[in-house]
TrEMBL record:
It comes from the Eukaryota. Residues 48-87, 116-268 are annotated as: Disordered. Keywords: Coiled coil, Nucleus. Pfam families: Nop25. GO terms for cellular component: nucleolus. Residues 119-142 have a biased composition (Acidic residues). InterPro entries: Nucleolar_protein_12. Residues 52-87, 187-241 have a biased composition (Basic and acidic residues). It comes from Trichosporon asahii var. asahii (strain CBS 8904). Transmembrane segments: none annotated. This is Ribosomal RNA-processing protein 17. Belongs to the RRP17 family. It is found in: Nucleus, Nucleolus.
Length: 268
């Protein structure tokens, strides 16, 4: 028997290990059936489809919401810019110097100045007058303040009053003036319109009150109206000397109703 080396003795089991490992790799993986998972997959087509539709609907709703917020932001910005431009146009039409208007430039709280620094004439006025600009800022907002030295508040062409003061002055003028502001025809038309509106309101109120009456109250009201008509008929009869009053046809009478004035004579 030949003598074996130490290497062959120490690695004798390696060949068996390699053959066993190769056999495990070539072995077909066992297939196991999960009846619960199979049933869930076969019966979940509709549920998965509804879930996908719901997810798409949520994404579309969120997209529309973001577009709506963006449109509102743009509309607010355009409105602020238009207001600043209107102020400039009005002051230019009145011959007043331009006024610096501070409006927000973005949805954030930073502000920008629209006003005297936009034209060449304003640049010239800056050279004539010494102006000091100071910036104030805190955690919430940032503002730019321009201080003009040697500013004379009495140089304005005209003084402006608030709308409330103007309304008070107009009221005082109307109270002091003894002449009516409206002609007689307009006053009559106004009074007639007011009377019509009042009559219409009373009629609506009466109709509303009648709609809330009980059947017994409506029956008593009908009996009362019938007695009033009978009394009126008796008075007309006595006035005609015991004869039944007969009503002639006129433009005011309507078909099926009494119209015109009563005439003397017996009814055929």
């Amino acid at each position: 028997m030949p003598k074996r080396s130490n290497v062959s003795l120490l690695t004798e089991g390696a060949a068996y290990i390699q053959r066993k490992k190769k056999a495990r790799q070539d072995q077909v993986e066992e297939i196991k059936f999960d009846d619960e998972a199979r049933r869930e997959w076969l019966t979940g087509f509709s549920k998965r489809k509804k879930q996908r539709v719901e997810e798409r609907r949520k994404r579309a709703k969120e997209r529309d919401h973001q577009e709506h917020l963006e449109e509102r932001r743009k509309a607010r910005q355009e409105l602020k810019e238009r207001a600043a431009q209107n102020v400039k146009d009005v002051r230019a039409a009145l011959g007043l110097p331009e006024l610096q208007v501070i409006v927000p430039c973005r949805p954030s709280l930073h502000v920008c100045v629209i006003g005297a620094n936009e034209t060449e004439s304003d640049d010239e006025s800056e050279e004539e007058q010494e102006q000091i600009e100071e910036a104030y800022s805190d955690d919430d907002q940032e503002a730019l303040v321009t201080i003009t030295e040697g500013f004379d508040p009495t140089s304005e062409a005209r003084s402006y009053h608030s709308s409330s003061d103007e309304e008070d002055e107009e009221k005082m003028v109307k109270r002091k003036s003894g002449v009516d502001l409206l002609p007689a025809s307009s006053k009559r038309a106004e009074a007639k319109a007011k009377s019509k509106a009042k009559a219409k309101a009373e009629k609506a109120e009466a109709k509303k009150s009648r709609s809330m009456e009980t059947p017994a109250e409506r029956r008593r009201a009908k009996e009362y109206e019938a007695r009033k008509r009978q009394k009126k008929f008796e008075k007309e009869r006595e006035r005609n000397g015991g004869e039944i009053p007969r009503y002639s046809k006129s433009s005011k009478g309507k078909p099926g109703k009494k119209g015109g004035k009563p005439t003397k004579g017996k009814r055929k």
